[in-house]
Amino acid sequence: MPFRIRSNAVALLALLAAGAAGGHAAQPDSATITIIGAERMVPLSKRLAAAYRERRPEIRIEVSGGGSEAGFRQLAEGSATIATASRPPSKEEVQFCRRKRNQEFVGTPIAMDAVAFYVAANRPLTALTIEQIRKIVGPVSGTWEELGLPGKAIQLHVPRKTSGSLAAVQTRVLGKTVFTRKKSEHETVAALLEAVADDPKAMGLAGLFKADGVRIVPIQRNADTAPVLPTAEAVQNGTYPLAHYLYWYTAGLPEPAVRDFLKFALSPEGQEIIRRADVGPVPLPLRPE
What we know:
Layout: H1 7-22, E1 31-37, H2 42-55, E2 59-66, H3 68-77, E3 82-85, H4 91-101, E4 105-114, E5 116-120, E6 128-129, H5 130-137, E7 155-159, H6 164-174, E8 183-186, H7 189-197, E9 202-206, E10 214-216, E11 219-220, H8 232-237, E12 243-251, H9 256-266, H10 268-277
Parallel strand pairs: 1-2, 1-3, 6-11, 7-8, 7-9
Antiparallel strand pairs: 3-12, 4-12, 5-9, 5-10
C-alpha cells in the first residue's frame, strides 16, 4: 500500500498495541478530552466520542471544528487535548508547539479519506488524469475545451486554504508549482458542492462527501491506466491516486485517558463505527504495525 505513516505515529501505535496487550492498565476515574480541528473530522470524532462514552461515561469529550490550523494552535497552547487534521503540521506550527510546550506533535491515523473532484451531475466528464488535474489546479488554469467538452475556463471551487485536501493536491500533484489564483474558496464542503451543482462550468475538489446535484469524476494515474472512483476499497488499497490518512494529533505521547480513547478508535469496534458512520471517511485497511 503506497502510504507512509510518520515515524512518531508508528511509535505511538506500537505503544497503543502494547497497552492493549497488557490488558488491565490503570485508568483515570474522570477526565475531559477536548478535540478541536478539521471541520471534515467533526462528525466522525463525535460518533466515536459518543460510542466511547457509553462504556466510559465518566470521561467527558468535547468536539468542535474551527479548522486544522486552530486545532494545532490550541493543542500547542494547551486548550485542546487532540487536534484533528488531514495534513501534517507546518514548520511554523511545529516550532510553535516546541516553544509553548517543549513537545512534538504526534499524529495517530484513525481513518482514511481521499481528494475527490466534483462536477455538476449532468456534466459528461468521464475521467481526469493526474496531468489534467495538474493543469486545472496549476497557475495556468485549464479549460473545458481541453477536456473535450464545450466551455472556456473551469471555475474551480476549493476548501479554505488550510484544508488537508489542498495540502494533499499540493504535495501529490503540484509539488513546488503554485496553486492557481483563479479559484473560489469555501468555508464548508457543503457550500462548495452547492456552488458546483449550480454551475455547469464549475469543478470542485474536496474530501469524500455525499451531496445532491454533483458527482465524483474517476481519476487515472495516466492515460494508460483505468479510471478509478474513490470507493472504500480503492482508498484503502491505494488504487485511487489521491487517498490519504486522517489523523488525531497529541502534543507528545498521550495521557492515559487519551491513550485509551485512541485505542478504542483503532479497535475493531471503533473502525466499525467509522465504516457505519457513512460520513465520507473510511476505516483503516488494517491496524498499522
